[in-house]
Design brief:
6 copies of one chain form a homohexamer. Chain A starts with a helix and ends with a helix. The longest helix of chain A has 23 residues, at 114-136. In chain A, helix 7 (114-136) packs antiparallel against helix 8. The first copy, chain A, is 66% helix and 0% strand. By secondary structure, chain A is mainly alpha-helical. The first copy, chain A, has 9 helices and no strands. At the A-E interface, helix 2 and helix 6 of A face helix 2 and helix 6 of E.
Chain lengths: 173, 173, 173, 173, 173, 173
């Protein structure tokens, strides 16, 4: 268990390289990002449950917390590298190995479940909010911003949280 | 909901002032800390459940994630200041207000529940692990280290996780 | 005396959290701020004396240098937190205690004296200059800027240093 | 006057290169250093006055605050460079020019006055305290530490503040 | 050509993740590392030539300068990740593509040439020197240090530069 | 030789003070800059050779790598200081002394040679590219930008690389 906590400690020290490559001087750590993804997941899952969907909030939270842990081993590889490396494969291998030493592995498997898909949505939404926050302090990369919005609009959860996503682009100007 | 996410964004930018005052140059953010507290809470809660205790893992995770959110408003006030400021009161006021705008407030109330107490234990354990990690890269403050260990030993959860706590002091030399 | 110097050392390590919350990546330390407040106080006090006002420059400088020292204990609590915490009370308590161990305490009491009021003016002017400087490198928060200007315009010292304050808004565009 | 304040702003952004070259990752700024030098000067000057010496505290404070301002133009040149550059000459030229635009230049001339010498002592004492603080968090450079202590022991002010200087080496182990 | 220069610009912003994972707060950038590798390569190649070996110094310098450029696309993946990702393959693909747009690609092919092997030796030597420098400021990881020394000792170039390598371990205590 | 490598290590830790003074929070190191100057020099020199000019690429690369090494001793003195200090003289003295301990000193003398002039061109071009990159993330200083472009246009190499320089100003808007 201690080993898992040390792995998590690495996420505190690793910056999100995507921001670094865009020139953000001291960007957030992967742990910073994971924290807000988990918080967003919590809010969205509770909301979906309140709206009548059958969703396992505990499971969603666990996926959100573990979601980026594999990064502790393969570090944060930015999108431009994905052409060269099959990241998801490497991550899955690392994630699997890591989860084998946690109490009940089957619970955390990400995949096609509703909870896993929600975490993916929360992951992108978090990035959009962060881009919005960096933009407010002077950073500019409008294309990136709209690209993420487009992806969020295509999601099955846009139906429930469209107002939230659109709110960000309105606030922006 | 967006407002809550912006508050969480502040935790990414706020350093843990306790480490700053001790001279750690670029210490972890409050969000960094909250992330690992949540992860530790998850592991410990699952373990306690496996050992037969009746514990609401979802509730524990929610408390862990929200635990430091009040800091976004009052910032991270280090222990030396607590003589002057009734921090817990201020935090509670802020937390309450914040939670009133989240779906189901009653769920998150921290206090005397088993889950709330577990998060407090995880919070201290996280600090111990971080102190251990800083120590490994050259930082020295042995007194601090042992003070936290003492507190963990007095906890009701030491019975279950004593091996983990003791493991850290063994690894250390 | 050594203890006082160690307290001052903490101000070098503590960032001004107000800027952090606004997204400035590596903002000035409290000591950075205190240094320029003291320098501004020196210039303004000399100017007022030259214009015939009866002002104790030494006393003004001492207040400026000690002004933020209480922060070393309660850290830099940003305005948003003041709703929850009676900051000035906590600071005064800390400041009083600290001053009791310095040679002649009565000299440093801040309050309603002309010198104390001048330091308050210099404190706001320094923040305005800093906002102006951050703005020049891309950071944007125009509302904040004008709010501080308004406060400076209401001050009794605007009569003497109006040109300086207005100069900053002219330079700006 | 505004120009002087902008020059002071540069001292906030310039690191003390001496520490950088020794490997301290995010060292103090020149303004950080100047702030504590001024505070130390204040305490020592008050103490000397209490002990019966005739000292102009206001003048000492002004010298302390302006002491490193010339650095804003020539930046912080570390000792190893002094073999190549006649630093004091360049600084004096810059300082003189800067002071010509401040109200009463004759007041600030540093030199052989008691006040000027006290600031030089405070300057070295500050560096010793900082070295001590960096040492406490793991940084090691004992030779440097003792070299500065030797210089302080040779000073005329060691007679008054010997206890303070010796206190630092005792605390150290 | 401009594109190649932008790629190089990314190396300035990307930290060497190996140091980050070991807890070095603001570690060197990949460009920092590449710069010293090139400088070391220059010195070693000149020395080898002086000792009568037939070596193409220009070619060695070009390999050294381009050696880590592929990292700009795949970022700096630390050794722990290499178990999961076939890094050299990905890098080669990226490097090849990049070199196709530079004037004379055949010149830069790294591989089994004497020059390529020398750059590999310089690359490890640079890391050893950096570890030594971090150690001097308090960072501790003796195992790592000796592991790199062992690799250098097995190299064909140890015959020529053994004194240099051994000098580092002597200086160390 | 080891001494030369330690000097180079200082360039990794020293920031380019020109950017610091302009308010860039964590600017590139001198080593970061030197790395890209060397890479640019390599590309330009190869191009000139391909166009039929008689140029010694190895020599150009050596000048580029050593070009800023003198900075390790006198640190990076920004343009505003040059009014006060005869920088080139000090640097030359330092550079000469340093080169006396490297194998064949006469090779590295910078001056009026074609290779030395090309490095000067690459040095300015690198700064322009960096200014462009900082601009893209929000930093603004248009005057600076155009001033460097003007200098590049006056160079003998503009004839060959005019397209590259002009490309940067076109990309910019």
């Amino acid at each position: 268990m201690l080993f898992l906590f040390f792995e998590a400690g690495k996420l505190k020290r690793l910056p999100r390289t995507g921001w670094l490559l865009k020139g953000i001087p001291n960007p957030e750590s992967i742990a910073d990002h994971s924290f807000r993804v988990s918080l967003i997941t919590m809010s969205l899952a509770d909301e979906l449950k309140a709206k009548g969907l059958e969703i396992d909030v505990e499971r969603a939270l666990k996926i959100a917390l573990l979601h980026d842990l594999a990064e502790a081993r393969v570090t944060d590889i930015p999108p431009t590298a994905q052409y060269y490396i099959d990241k998801s494969k490497a991550e899955k291998k690392a994630a699997m190995e890591m989860l084998l030493s946690t109490p009940r592995p089957r619970e955390y498997e990400e995949g096609l479940s509703l909870e896993g898909r929600l975490v993916k949505f929360a992951d992108k939404l978090e990035m959009l909010i962060q881009a919005y926050e960096y933009e407010k302090t002077g950073f500019k990369d409008p294309n990136e911003f709209w690209k993420v919005i487009e992806k969020l609009k295509e999601s099955e959860f846009y139906e429930y949280f469209g107002e939230l996503v659109d709110g960000l682009s309105l606030h922006r100007d």
